[in-house]
Amino acid sequence: MDVQSYAFKVGDLACVVLYEGAVSYRLRAFFANAPEDELAAYGLPERVLAPHNCLVVTTGGQRVLIDTGPGPTARPEAGWILQALTQAGIAPQSIDRVVLTHSHPDHIGGLFDGRGHVAFPNARLVLASAEWDYWRASARDTTRALLDLLRARFDRIDPPAEVAPGVRLRPAPGHTPGLVMVEITGGPDRLTCTSDVIAHPLHLTHPDWGIVSDWDQPLALAARRDLLAQAAAGAWLLLGYHFPFPGLGRARARGETYVWEPAVSEPALPIARP
Ligand SMILES: [Zn+2]
User: Fold this and answer.
1) What pLDDT sits at residue 4?
2) Smallest Cα–Cα separation from 224: which of 162, 269, 164, 181?
3) Which domains does the chain have, with CATH numbers?
4) How many CB atoms lie within 10 A of CB 166?
5) Radius of gyration over alpha carbons of the chain, in Å?
6) Could you say which DSSP state residue 265 is in?
7) What is the pLDDT of residue 3?
């Protein structure tokens, strides 16, 4: 398995983006309500590859992992978070907190390893209360079962809240009821992990093109508009979970909307995996 990582700093905080794989979706999954002719004009393939960029931040002597990828059921295309950590020199046992931006399978599935064991045995798991409550009451058995199995390890948080020094949860409901973005602040520098408020670079150019799995599309699109307006005005550094690895970049205003400006030239990724 060829995994990649990208190390950088936010002020004095050491950060590593881990590429844990990518899963393909049909094009419409990302642009559920896009007019046919406008979408076709981009000439995108019928299936779109969605990478998973997981972030590890070291702060105040703690290691915080943000999102885990879909877990071993997604192999061989994805599900390699433990391999990615190990290859980056980070022992899974050394993770103190796992922040879950929301409870979709491609973000929480990596909480278990390929043998059904807890992947991060020493970590507290952080999830917004609204997210916990919604999925505990939902009919999606696999998500509810996963939360139940790990119940004792979870800390349910009401954002906005700081969960580790310089690591703040910022509520952005819409894609799911309790979705949070994660703000990393080190000295004067800041990084905002956007989770699925934006899930494809084209969402900057077409902020009104919703994701098929949005729980409340108007709310999701309002959260996106809000994020993009602030991010462009403040030249925020963003991490797009599903953006091309390593997913770091900025939203630049262009007319009424925005364009994605990668902050790091994107390393080539192999398509085939052993
Ligand atoms: Zn996602």
Assistant:
1) 87
2) 181
3) 4-262 (3.60.15.10)
4) 22
5) 17
6) P
7) 64
